[in-house]
Amino acid sequence: MFTCCHPALAMEARVALTLRMVGGLTVPEIARAFLVRESAMGRRITRAKDKIKAARIPYRVPSAEDLPARVSGVLAVLFLVFNEGYLATGPGTGPVRPGLTAEAIRLTRLVRALLPDDGEATGLLALMLLTEARRPARVSAGGDLVALDEQDRGTWDVALIAEGHRLVRERLAARTAPGRYQILAAINAVHTSARDMRDTDWSQVVALYDQLVRVDPSPVIALNRAIAVAELDGPEVALAAVDRLADRLAGYHAYHAARADLLRRLGRSRESRAAYDRAIELAGNTAETAYLTRRRDQLPM
After folding, report:
1. Burial, 250: exposed, middle or buried (Cβ in 10 Å; 0-12, 13-18, 19+)?
2. Cβ 9 vs Cβ 71: under 8 Å
3. Taking the chain, what is the end-to-end CA distance rounded to the nearest angstrom?
4. Spatial separation of the C-alpha atoms in residues 255 and 278, rounded to whole Å
5. Given Cys at both, which of 4, 29, 86, 257 links 25, Cβ 3.0 to 4.6 Å?
6. How many angstroms separate the CA atoms of 162 and 185, rounded?
7. Which residues fall within 8 angstroms of residue 268, CB to CB, at 6 or more apart?
8. Rounded Cα distance, 216 and 187, in Å
9. Considering the entire predicted model, what is its pTM?
10. Which of 76, 99, 96 is nearest to 86 (CA)?
11. 84: closest CA among 138, 24, 140, 21?
């Protein structure tokens, strides 16, 4: 795989540039993936291109000995390409882009074949498979996003789930410290093991998020952990955790969507409606916007 991973470029710039030039994502899509303004991402990509041109950094297929040093950047690119396919952010696309998810999975299989002992390559493949398995239930016939608790689990792809679970067990058997993708895969393994939302082992999910926060202390991970905490300790505890992320996630639609749902569960309908309004304003996916609008309109006046 061609990647721009020269050490003269920061990791974020390398990933963003590769997403643009190899992954084919637009600047707005890349900006939303990094939770930054489109103008800021455009400047970063331009500066990276200028640096490559000035330093005459070549684009080439890496040699076998170069692969281990470059794998983290490659996996980051594949992860973001998959995410854009699984829930497209652009207003001019469908809610799901199966071509992107399929290509991300295909390329991740190639990376794993090249580096079979790399735990994160295996973890990312498992994560993609377990996520892709749920795609048939992800969008309703009417074009609305279908949340995990409302999905028809009978439509999930059992073959992809079985393969994903096998890969997760393979990494557990290795008894090495897991990275970000391995932990995310384990979380998804818990979700896809439950026959019903009520059967989910939420204590295990929260424990895995606790482990993930130590590996990746990003505000998005903290938000997802809080959503899981709501199922274990209740919406009031979770809302306090979510509100602590306000400064860092004010422009992220999922933050406002999570707040809206927690406020709804607490009976604070007026505040919930305002949070849904902000989430709808920021959401780019048509299916997600339809889902958020439906949930908002179900609130009592």
Report:
1. exposed
2. no
3. 54
4. 10
5. 29
6. 13
7. none
8. 14
9. 0.84
10. 96
11. 24
> In terms of DSSP H, where are the helices of 116-252?
119-132, 158-174, 180-193, 202-215, 219-233, 235-243, 246-249
| Residue 28 to residues 31, 35, 56, 277, Cα–Cα distance (Å) | 5, 10, 27, 22
Counting every residue written for the chain, the total comes to 301
Query: Which amino acid makes up residue 96?
Result: V
Tokens 């439509």 belong to 155
Structure tokens at 271: 């505040």
How many whole angstroms separate alpha carbon 52 and alpha carbon 46? 10
